Amino acid sequence: MDERDELRRRADAGDQDAVDQLVELAGEAGDMDELRRLAASGSTDAVDVLVELAGEREDVDELRRLADLGNTDAADVLAELRD
Predict the structure, then answer these.
(1) What is the DSSP letter of 69?
(2) CA 30, 34, 36, 38: dihedral to nearest 10 degrees?
(3) Smallest Cα–Cα separation from 49: which of 70, 9, 37?
(4) Phi and psi dihedrals of 43, rounded to 5?
(5) Please, are residues 20 and 6 in contact by the beta-carbon 8 Å criterion?
(6) Which are the contacts of 30, defined by CB distance < 8 A and separation ≥ 6?
(7) How many CB atoms lie within 10 A of CB 7?
(8) pTM attached to this predicted model
């Protein structure tokens, strides 16, 4: 079991420190799938990093998806990209 697998196991068991570490690792690696998984499980930090990465990449589809879920930061970044 590698480090991320262990962190996922701990995160799934409710360990917030493990969630935080996974968000950090996924953000550094640009791992959008991992960030989406963490966001879906309730991590607002993962959502924030998703918005940041999507904005940097000008990933309009991801920003639109997040905005459609009610994320106002994603909507703001999306509006800025359209200007």
Answers:
(1) T
(2) -120
(3) 37
(4) -80, 110
(5) no
(6) 53
(7) 21
(8) 0.91
Tell me 25's DSSP state: H
Q: For tokens 């493990």, what's the residue?
A: 18
Do 30 and 45 touch, CB atoms closer than 8 A? no
What tokens does 39 get? 């966001």
Per-residue CA distances from 19 to 67, 68, 75, 81 (Å): 23, 24, 25, 30
29-56: per-residue pLDDT in tens?
999 999 999 999 999 999 999 999 999 9
Q: Give residue 74's identity as a one-letter amino acid code.
A: A
Structure-token match 């993962």, residue found: 46
As given in the structure block, the two tokens for residue 60 are 């309009």
Question: Are 66 and 74 a contacting pair, CB within 8 Å?
Answer: yes
Through-space distance between the first and last CA atoms of the chain, rounded to whole angstroms: 46
Q: Rounded distance, CA 66 to CA 4, Å?
A: 25
